[in-house]
TrEMBL record, chain A:
GO terms for biological process: adenosine metabolic process; nucleotide metabolic process. InterPro entries: 5-nucleotidase. Pfam families: 5-nucleotidase (PF06189). This is Cytosolic 5'-nucleotidase 1A-like. PANTHER family: CYTOSOLIC 5'-NUCLEOTIDASE 1 FAMILY MEMBER, CYTOSOLIC 5'-NUCLEOTIDASE 1A. GO terms for cellular component: cytosol. It comes from Hucho hucho (huchen). GO terms for molecular function: 5'-nucleotidase activity; magnesium ion binding; nucleotide binding.
Automatic annotation (TrEMBL), chain B:
GO terms for cellular component: cytosol. One of its GO terms (molecular function) is nucleotide binding. Pfam families: 5-nucleotidase. Coiled coil: none annotated. This is 5'-nucleotidase, cytosolic IB b. GO terms for biological process: adenosine metabolic process; nucleotide metabolic process.
């Protein structure tokens, strides 16, 4: 059971045509440790703030080019917070002028069902564990990368990075992962990542093509962390076949990904769903 | 520039080890005989741009004359994508590095102290397929690459812990040197590949403003040769400060010692040369003493006392020759040597011994 509240300050998108993404409220607003009963001032900005701003830039550019554009980002804020916090969340969104179409308030256990019933293309969270858990339960999800480097933060360009390990993978690789000791639950995460990426990539490809090679408010990339260069080439060709020509590509061959990610500063980072990368988030 | 590779204890953590383990598994499980790439902190990382690795003159022309969209369309055409690109000016160097790696792997099968070649290009990722196809065609061991889609590669060079960056773009190279990364601009020379050794990597360095700082070079330019000789003799026992390529020589020396440790000094597949305009009698001692104070060896030190470097380099046939002065680079190129310019120090303000600003002023005065 969830309660969906439309945001009166934001023009509602056509959900069938839009890129519907759900963002956890803990990512947009800093989850406060101390909940002051009855407090009314706006919540503090969370780690996903630059992402929200970047989404806005993309939507604005698309609408400037075509005021009837329907291929826009449509953000649903997903909140498991107690009822007394609901109005504060809505008011804070209004205060910051965030482009949030709808607020979805539900229990933690009902989150997955809410995501599915609202045809959410991607669930976004700043918590790697949550992302992997969602993937393992069959929900398309990706990481909102914590942009902590003030020198490299981007608010005027949305950066989306896809996983070459997932897109370029073969059946043989999946079998190999099983042999290496990954559990069926973890492998389910990988399979969900692989199965759900096409739809999102196709939409990103279409959106990216609205802009030229240079000066685009949307920047797409491919990162291959542990697979070979041939897997990377295969991923590039696959994405191309889906209509997405990525701007940047990185092939790490096992080298640490964090230094590169800290430079790229993606907003949306597609994971392979396998690990609980505690060390990873600690690095940001 | 004082360390070959910075050691960062924060770098070892669960996430990285996971990535590393998965990658190792992946290359182990492949039935190919491809060796596993080393961890960046253990390797000597050499980043090459796409235009130094491959000859992309035709493609560059399209980019410059018709713009980036036409260039991309050209590169993406199916018929071109599968055409291997022709080898570029850094190609012989890359092959030589691979030869050294196979010798190292024979002697030290478990060691990660190897060369790691990274393709660092600010080409758009779509060119990636053609580049990977070409790398496959020549069977090059380049597993890591970075296609920045137009962004500056400088930050990425640091992120990949690069020991040496080679590019055709002088601006990027200058920026890299300013950031403390050894770098040089490569120029196309004649077809020398069949004349180069395929069993021994040969690297030649100029001394001042390449291995050493430009402190003495400044004295020559500002006070003349006599002052220079006097100064160098007086300061013979004071080591020169290090230059942008000192750490790279150090990295080469470290690998050389691995061969010496296994009694392979005579057949060591790395040989280093110092090719300097200094003369042995008057200013050479300081150079040799400086190298000794750094604990570095150089296989052959050649003091030319001002004679042109071209003919000597032609005999040596290095896979790469580093110099800070374009005058020497041009002289080397003319006789077929693969030369790389290090845009560092006072030498950049001069051309053929004349201060560049001054010659402009003279022209104006004559009008």
């Amino acid at each position: 059971m969830d309660s969906m509240v439309r945001n009166p300050d934001v023009k509602q998108r056509d959900a069938a045509q839009a890129v519907v993404v759900a963002v956890s409220s803990d990512a947009i607003f800093d989850p406060e440790v101390e909940q002051v009963h009855g407090a009314t001032e706006p919540l503090r900005k969370g780690d996903a703030f630059s992402f929200m701003k970047a989404i806005q830039v993309v939507n604005e550019r698309l609408l400037t080019m075509n005021s009837d554009e329907t291929l826009l980002f449509d953000v649903i804020l997903l909140s498991n917070d107690s009822e007394e916090k609901h109005s504060r969340i809505i008011a804070s969104a209004k205060h910051y002028g965030l482009d949030i179409g709808r607020f979805c308030f539900c229990n933690k256990e009902d989150s997955i069902e809410s995501l599915q019933s609202n045809k959410v293309k991607l669930f976004l969270s700043t918590d790697t564990k949550d992302v992997c858990k969602a993937l393992q339960k069959g929900v398309p999800a990706a990481l909102l990368f914590r942009q902590t480097d003030p020198h490299h933060q981007t608010e005027d360009q949305l950066k989306v990075v896809f996983s070459g390990d997932v897109i370029g993978s073969s059946e043989e690789m999946l079998h190999g992962l099983r042999e290496q000791g990954f559990t069926e639950t973890q492998l389910q995460g990988f399979k969900t990542a692989k199965g759900s990426v096409k739809e999102f990539a196709v939409l990103m490809g279409e959106m990216r093509r609205r802009f030229g090679l240079e000066g685009s408010p949307l920047c797409t990339g491919l990162m291959t962390v542990w697979s070979s260069r041939d897997v990377c080439a295969s991923a590039l060709k696959t994405l191309r076949g889906w209509g997405l020509l990525v701007d940047e590509a990185f092939c790490m061959a096992g080298a640490p990904r964090s230094p590169i990610l800290n430079l790229v500063q993606p907003h949306i980072l597609c994971l392979d769903g396998l690990y609980h990368m505690e060390g990873f988030t600690a690095m940001s | 520039m004082s360390e070959i590779k910075p050691t960062d204890t924060a770098a070892t953590n669960a996430g990285e080890e996971n990535d590393w383990a998965a990658s190792k598994y992946f290359s182990d499980s492949l039935k190919t005989k491809k060796p596993k790439p080393p961890k960046p902190q253990n390797a000597v990382t050499i980043a090459v741009s796409s235009r130094t690795l491959f000859n992309m003159v035709e493609e560059r022309k399209i980019y410059e004359e018709e713009g980036v969209e036409k260039y991309m369309a050209h590169m993406n055409q199916q018929k071109h994508e599968n055409e291997p690109l022709m080898p570029g000016v850094a190609f012989p160097l890359v092959k030589a590095l691979m030869t050294v790696n196979s010798r190292l792997r024979q002697l030290y099968p478990d060691s990660e102290e190897l060369f790691d070649i990274v393709l660092m290009t600010n080409n758009h990722a779509q060119v990636g397929v053609r580049l990977i196809n070409s790398i496959n065609h020549y069977d090059l061991t380049i597993e890591r690459f970075c296609m920045t889609g137009g962004q500056s590669p400088i930050g990425y060079l640091k992120a990949y812990m690069t020991n040496l960056y080679l590019s055709k773009d002088g601006e990027k190279v200058t920026e890299a040197i300013k950031e403390g990364i050894a770098a040089a601009t490569m120029f196309t020379s004649g077809d020398v590949e069949n004349q180069l050794s395929d069993t021994q990597l040969k690297v030649a360095f100029d001394g001042d403003a390449v291995l050493f700082s430009d402190e003495s070079e400044i004295i020559v330019k500002q006070c003349g040769l006599d002052m220079f000789f006097e100064h160098e003799q007086e300061f013979e026992n004071i080591p020169l400060k290090q230059g942008p390529l000192k750490c790279f020589l150090e990295a080469l020396g470290k690998l050389q010692r691995k061969f010496y440790a296994k009694n392979e000094r005579m057949t060591c597949p790395i040989r280093t040369y110092l090719v300097t305009a200094r003369s042995a009698a008057s200013s050479g001692a300081r150079v040799l003493k400086t190298l000794r104070s750094w604990g570095l060896e150089i296989d052959e030190a050649l003091f030319l006392a001002g004679a042109p470097k071209g003919p000597l380099l032609q005999k040596i046939r290095p896979h790469i020759f580093f110099d800070d002065q374009m005058f020497h680079i041009e002289g080397a190129k003319e006789l077929g040597t693969i030369a790389a310019h290090v845009p560092y120090g006072i030498g950049q303000k001069y051309h053929k011994g004349e201060l560049i600003e001054q010659t402009v002023k003279d022209v104006k005065d004559k009008k």
